[in-house]
Specification:
The complex is a heterotetramer of chains A (254), B (313), C (371) and D (373).
Chain A lengths: L6 E11 L4 E11 L3 E5 L6 H8 L7 E6 L2 E2 L7 E4 L13 H6 L14 H13 L15 H14 L4 E5 L7 H16 L3 E5 L6 H4 L2 E6 L1 E7 H4 L2 H8 L3 H9 L5
Parallel strand pairs in A: 3-8, 3-9, 6-7, 7-8
Antiparallel strand pairs in A: 1-2, 1-4, 4-5, 9-10
Helix pairs in contact in A: 3-4, 4-5, 8-9
Chain B lengths: L1 H21 L10 E5 L2 H11 L3 E5 L14 H9 L2 E4 L7 H11 L3 E4 L11 E2 L2 E5 L7 H18 L4 H27 L7 E6 L3 H6 L3 E6 L9 H14 L3 E5 L5 H12 L5 E6 L14 H18 L3
Parallel strand pairs in B: 1-2, 1-3, 3-4, 7-8, 9-10
Antiparallel strand pairs in B: 5-6
Helix pairs in contact in B: 2-5, 2-6, 5-6, 6-10, 8-9
Chain C lengths: L2 H25 L5 H8 L1 H11 L5 H23 L5 H23 L7 H4 L11 E4 L2 E5 H19 L1 H9 L1 H6 L4 H23 L1 H18 L3 H26 L3 H19 L5 H27 L5 H4 L2 H8 L3 H13 L3 E4 L2 E4 L1 H12 L4
Antiparallel strand pairs in C: 1-2, 3-4
The chains are: A alpha/beta (254), B alpha/beta (313), C mainly alpha (371), D mainly alpha (373).
Chain lengths: 254, 313, 371, 373
């Protein structure tokens, strides 16, 4: 086990099991600081479970998670989480600024209320995702792409060194996809570490530096150039060779 | 899947086994006359007239309000093996009244004692000439009809012990007559303006008519009816204007209803207290003074007269 | 047949009749409709009483059933407007209807002993004494016939509309897409629920009906994976609960309806704990057994990883294993012992190395999960 | 009769108003967390608590009865949470089961008590449930204190409760103990409901937890105004119900308040600006929301979204079949879309939405978003 001081996130022997089938099995992962990593794999590979288990949102049977060498603990603002858009009830009575301000709750005490400073931080984050004009807009009236940007802005406000996003590019319009990709680039340039559960293999080389191929077990992880190969994909996605062949050649998406 | 089926089979076996154990041989015919009574008040009447030549089972225990009564499994067995079913009637026992009436048509001796009272002396329910107030027993005079009715029925059903029933029946009727006189005399001690009985439920109309007292209830008879603020205000104004010293709670109704009334009267400058708790639909605990019907009447009258005449003496 | 056995028969028939529509209520997440109906039928009863002035006329029952259907229609209209969630829709409609009933009673019939309990609600204990006699022939308790008819109708309707009901329950939009009429099916189901509820109120009392419509299907939901077996289990559990509750009530001389409701709850609790896959104990047993099994596999995968690597001496040294795997020493020894016992590892001096069988297991420790 | 000079009206109006405010505010969070039916469930689940207290103490004194009811109610909410967390039984079934089984057990206890020759048991089960018209001064004091307490806690832990209702998992990721916040909120609700049951009865309490929130939700799209409006609706209904029932004889106060609440709900459902059925009818010509989205067209649109630069990028039946549930007759639906010019074949067995089809999908999406707002 290389004990690399600069590694932002180290996951060791992480195992998660719900029913009798393990969902994640003895995952070892090292993500250097500033890296943009995609987690890809077939349905049921445990992609979402991995980031949730790493963040302690889901119980794990075994395993250890370290951030910058220290054991990870929720609540000290080290990891910012962007959930799947579809997991939220968007008919909730609140507006865009209010949702983004929730990102500042981590730094506020129990009984204190978000003040002007927090709202300004939220506005800054909204500008980064070009949503500042929608500040007062009720979230029920947002399109899919706009919802995704608001969730991203909420994570940005936390100014955490590591961000974990669950399917941020799922079913969003093209402009939103570009905007999110741009934000991820900027974060990476600033030395922040970005880990994204992703489904569109087509865009992996374009948006990410490294990739983790996951199917219940960590098949392979590392820079896209030397990991994102046809036989690794076949190992990860199993028998659907046909699709893989076209895939590698970049004709149709998964 | 076969695992679940095995669990299921075990379940049903266990259940069927216990079920058979539960069966009951139907009673034999010899021995004392098996009588089942519904309310405690009816039960007391049957006990006093039936004496020891009957085997009495009263479905509702002390303090059980017929409106809220919930039968248990044992009651079913008692009703099934009863030779005579005695109940109040006039729909006091709710749904059970129809069931008992129907049992009557199928050869089981049933007797609704309240329905022995001549129809013209029954108080109709406001607005419904087909329905009557079932609380007949508050008029001791009328309850004599119920006693006579029961006595004659027992004599008809169980002729071998007829003279016992005749003797005890007449004694009970005589006792009721004296009691009726005593109540009249006690109530007469109250000056006219004090003869007003205010209670939570509207159950004492017969008492009012028989002993010349004005009767007012905050709530109707139905447990589902709710009072309105106007009703509370009107009753409070009435009590304050009449300068009544006391109002009364019932054991089966939360006291807070009447407490709200007294607070309203006090706020109007009236001076009223809760004069005590009356026995309405059920007798008191066994061993206590109000264990019998006569006991409850005496207790109620003492409470009423005492509270209403108390303050200025 | 003795009255007690008649009560048992009525209880079982009612339980099964209620469990059939109840299964769909549970699956469609509208279980609380059964409780809402038990409150909302009051105005129907009162209006019918005002018309007939007779506390035991059958019209009261008909009016109650009609009000039950009205309740469902109003709830459904609120839900379909998509302005209010399902549970709030239920929570708005039934208090309003019940209040109308209470106001009618207080204004018109406060001196009449008239409320849902006194008028409509039957009591299982009285059922054997309310008999059906045709042309002088005593055919048995009326409740047995009424609930038997409702059971038959429910069973037939469910069999006839099996596909439609199943589809409408699983995916209403797809049902529409494929030409089934989810709305008609839905209202048909809700009418069945309303009629069954009101019929059963008269036979056994309202609270038992709510228990019988929800508890057995919920128990079955834990035992079965597909709709067919689920209904089978719901019916079986309903009958078992009715019989168990009945037996307890006789033994302890307590309320039969109350005992059956409690028994249905107990059966759910038993299934909740002991169900083969989904039960708590099964999950716990699996987890503890799993942990050792996982640990053995993790040990193998770990050893496989570092077997022919330069750090093998350090990584596979038995004494140091617990540090690399992040386990307590005692636990590590136990895992290694277990692996050795299953001949998956062999000791080579200080090192622990996977045997051929161990290597095979480690390789498909992951991919081979499909077995 | 000088209206507010009257003692009873003052007490009832004040009591109902205070309860309306507390129930309206708390009810808003219960409404958003899909816990609206807790009021009704607790009123049934409380029975065994009352019966046990009577079995132990032999008295019907109000305080022990209330404690017994609150404990039984609290245990039932714990049972519901355990069942929902540890098994796939949905929340409403667990709630319905808890309600019926607890009440059934209460019945068993009642009939056991009934056999004891103790007159004090008379009317036991009705001892928990009060009536609005018979509110006592002491009730109003207790309600005001507890009501104020609830509102203070709501205000103090505002963002925790908002997080709990909107995105509890995100709260967890921030390190907030969301399970404890959930437990605290449920406790507040149980206390408010049991107090409400004791003072105004089952029906009114159940309605007060739901109706104000449902009406307020239609009138605003932000949480703070919604809670305030719900509290105000609660107060207005409480007071006006009390006044109405003091003007008209034999008009019960509790049910009158419920009808006023229901009127508020109906009015706001129909006339709420922008969202109400009345405006929707004018705008869309019909009461139902946008035409049921054609799932297959939406799937085609979603797939095409992933290749913005290449609109006619086709997708095979295999991909489409994986997206829509088994048993869907795809060929027939695609044929129908083609006949309506919404989709067309772009390659051998590959389908894509036509430009019109794309616009129709976007319009349906907007309808969807707009109607849900």
């Amino acid at each position: 086990m290389i004990d690399d001081r600069s590694a932002a996130l180290e996951v060791e022997d992480l195992t998660v099991a719900y029913s009798d089938q393990p969902v994640l099995w003895d995952i070892d992962l090292v993500v250097p600081a500033g890296d943009k990593m995609a987690i890809v794999g077939p349905n049921g590979a445990g992609k979402s479970t991995l980031i949730k288990a790493a963040m302690g949102l889901v119980p794990s049977v075994a395993g250890e998670v370290r951030v910058f060498g220290r054991p990870f603990a929720k609540g000290n603002g080290e990891i910012a989480y962007v959930p799947q858009r579809s997991s939220l009830e968007w008919d909730f009575p609140t507006d865009v600024l209010d949702v983004v301000t929730m990102g500042t709750y981590g730094s506020l005490g129990w009984f204190s209320r978000p003040g002007a400073a927090e709202r300004d931080r939220a506005r800054a984050a909204l500008e980064e995702v070009t949503m500042e004009a929608f500040e007062r807009r009720p979230i029920a009236q947002l399109s899919g792409g706009q919802q995704q940007r608001v969730l991203l802005a909420r994570a940005l406000v936390q100014e955490a060194p590591i961000l974990m996003l669950d399917e941020p590019f799922q079913g969003v319009d093209a402009p939103t996809e570009q905007a999110i990709a741009a934000v991820l680039d900027r974060l990476s340039d600033e030395g922040k570490t970005v880990i994204v559960v992703h489904h569109d293999l087509q865009t992996v080389p374009e948006y990410f530096d490294s990739v983790l191929l996951l199917n219940v077990r960590a098949i392979e992880s590392g820079p896209v150039a030397d990991v994102f190969t046809e036989d690794n994909l076949r190992l990860t996605f199993g028998g659907r060779v046909g699709v893989l062949a076209q895939l590698a050649a970049g004709e149709i998406d998964s | 899947m076969k695992m679940n089926r095995r669990i299921l089979v075990v379940f049903t076996l266990v259940v069927v086994a216990t079920a058979c154990g539960g069966g009951q041989p139907t009673g034999d015919t010899a021995g004392p006359l098996r009588v089942v009574a519904t309310t405690t008040i009816v039960g007391d009447l049957v006990r006093s007239i039936g004496g020891d030549t009957i085997e009495l089972k009263t479905l509702m225990g002390a303090g059980v309000d017929p409106h809220l009564y919930k039968p248990s499994a044992g009651n079913v067995r008692a009703m099934a093996s009863a030779e005579v079913l005695v109940y109040n009637g006039l729909h006091l026992e709710g749904k059970m009244t129809d069931v008992l009436a129907e049992m009557g048509t199928r050869g089981v001796e049933t007797l609704a004692v309240a329905e022995c009272v001549p129809a013209d002396s029954l108080l109709p329910v406001a607005g419904y000439d087909t329905l009557h107030d079932p609380h007949v027993w508050f008029d001791v005079g009328l309850w004599q009809h119920a006693a006579a009715c029961l006595r004659d029925a027992l004599i008809r059903i169980d002729p071998d012990h007829a003279d016992g029933y005749q003797l005890r029946g007449d004694a009970v009727i005589a006792e009721f007559a004296d009691l009726d006189g005593w109540v009249r005399e006690r109530v007469a001690t109250l000056p006219d303006e004090r003869r007003v009985l205010v209670t939570a439920h509207d159950a004492f109309s017969y008492f009012g008519r028989a002993y010349d007292m004005e009767v007012r209830g905050l709530l109707g008879v139905s447990t589902a009816a709710e009072a309105g603020t106007a009703d509370v205000q009107a009753l409070a104004a009435f009590i304050a204007d009449r300068g009544l010293p006391a109002v009364f709670v019932e054991s089966s109704v939360p006291p807070r209803f009447v407490e709200a009334l007294t607070e309203a009267v006090l706020a109007r400058g009236g001076d009223v207290t809760i004069g005590g708790s009356l026995y309405s639909d059920a007798l008191g605990s066994p061993g206590g003074p109000a264990e019998t019907y006569v006991g409850t009447v005496r207790a109620n009258v003492e409470t009423i007269v005492g509270a209403l005449s108390g303050s200025d003496q | 047949m003795s009255p007690e056995l008649e009560i048992l028969a009525i209880a079982i028939v009612t339980a099964v009749a209620a469990a059939l529509p109840g299964t769909y209520l549970v699956l469609r997440r509208t279980a609380m409709v059964s409780d809402a109906i038990s409150h909302a039928i009051l105005p129907g009863i009162v209006v019918a009483f005002f018309l007939t002035q007779d506390l035991n006329s059958p019209l009261l029952m008909v009016a109650a059933a009609a009000t039950g259907v009205l309740t469902v229609v109003l709830i459904e209209a609120l839900i379909r407007s998509r302005l209010v969630p399902e549970d709030a829709s239920i929570g708005i409609v039934f208090p309003a209807l019940f209040s109308i009933g209470v106001i009618l009673i207080s204004r018109g019939a406060s001196d009449v002993h008239l409320d849902t309990d006194a008028v409509l609600l039957g009591e299982l204990a009285f059922a054997p004494f309310h008999r059906l006699t045709v042309a002088g022939v005593d055919l048995g308790p009326a409740a047995l016939w009424s609930m038997g008819a409702i059971l038959a109708v429910n069973a037939v309707l469910i069999l006839l509309a099996w596909k439609e009901l199943k589809l409408a329950t699983v995916d209403a939009s797809l049902a529409a897409l494929l030409g089934f009429q989810p709305l008609v099916v839905h209202y048909g189901l809700m009418t069945m629920v309303s009629v069954t509820a009101v019929g059963a109120f008269d036979a056994v009392g309202s609270i038992l009906v709510v228990a019988l419509m929800i508890a057995p299907p919920a128990t079955a939901y834990l035992l079965a994976e597909r709709l067919g077996p689920m209904i089978g289990f719901a019916v079986a559990t309903a009958a078992a609960g009715a019989a168990l509750g009945w037996a307890v009530a006789l033994a302890l001389d307590v309320s039969i309806a109350g005992a059956i409701a409690t028994a249905s709850g107990l059966l759910f609790a038993v299934a909740f704990l002991a169900a083969p896959q989904r039960g708590l104990l099964a999950q716990a047993r699996r987890r503890s057994g799993q942990r050792l099994d996982f640990a053995v596999r993790m040990l193998l995968v770990h050893l496989l990883h570092h077997e022919d690597t330069p750090e093998a001496a350090e990584e596979c040294r038995e004494a140091g294993l617990f540090r690399h795997l992040g386990w307590r020493e005692a636990w590590t020894r136990r895992v290694v012992g277990k692996a050795e016992q299953r001949e998956l590892v062999a000791r080579a001096g200080e090192l622990v190395l996977p045997t051929e069988a161990g290597r095979h297991l480690a390789n498909n420790a992951v991919i081979g999960f499909g077995d | 009769m000088e209206l507010f000079g009257d003692y009873t009206l003052r007490v009832v109006a004040l009591g109902s108003g205070v309860l309306g405010a507390a129930a309206g505010a708390l009810g808003s969070f219960a409404y958003l967390r899909r816990q609206s039916l807790v009021g009704d469930a607790l009123s049934h689940a409380a029975l065994p608590g009352i019966a046990l207290v009577f079995l132990l103490t032999g008295s019907k004194a109000p305080l022990p009865i209330m404690l017994g009811a609150a404990c039984a109610g609290w245990i039932s909410t714990l049972a519901v949470r355990l069942v929902v967390r540890r098994s796939r039984v949905p929340y409403d079934s667990a709630l319905g089961m808890a309600l019926a089984v607890f009440f059934g057990f209460g019945l068993v206890l009642l009939t056991a008590i009934q056999k004891r020759p103790d007159a004090a048991q008379a009317g036991l089960e009705s001892f928990l449930f009060g009536q609005a018209a018979s509110l006592l001064r002491e009730d109003v004091v207790v309600m005001s204190i507890l009501g104020a307490g609830c509102l203070i806690v709501l205000g103090a832990l505002w963002k925790e409760f908002k997080l709990l209702s909107f995105d509890s998992e995100f709260g967890d990721s921030l390190g907030r103990p969301m399970r404890r916040v959930d437990g605290l909120f449920t406790l507040l609700l149980v206390v408010a409901v049991v107090i409400g049951l004791r003072t105004v009865g089952v029906v009114l309490m159940s309605a007060m937890v739901v109706a104000p929130a449902a009406a307020a939700r239609q009138l605003t799209n932000r949480l703070a105004p919604m809670v305030v409006i719900a509290a105000v609706i609660g107060v207005i209904s409480g007071v006006s119900g009390a006044v109405l029932s003091s003007l008209i004889p034999r008009l019960p106060t509790g049910p009158t308040i419920v009808l006023v609440l229901s009127a508020f709900v109906v009015l706001s459902l129909v006339f709420a600006p922008g969202r109400g059925l009345f405006w929707r009818w004018i705008r869309l010509g019909r009461l139902q929301p946008a035409a049921a989205l054609n799932p297959v067209l939406m799937h085609l649109y979603a797939l095409s979204q992933q290749h913005p630069e290449e609109p006619d990028h086709g997708h095979g039946l295999a991909v489409l079949r994986t997206m829509s549930p088994a048993g869907a007759d795809l060929e027939q639906v695609l044929g129908d879309l083609q006949s309506r010019g919404l989709a067309h074949v772009v390659g051998e067995g590959l389908w894509a939405p036509t430009p019109i089809g794309r616009r129709e999908a976007e319009r349906s999406l907007d309808h969807e978003a707009e109607v849900r707002s």
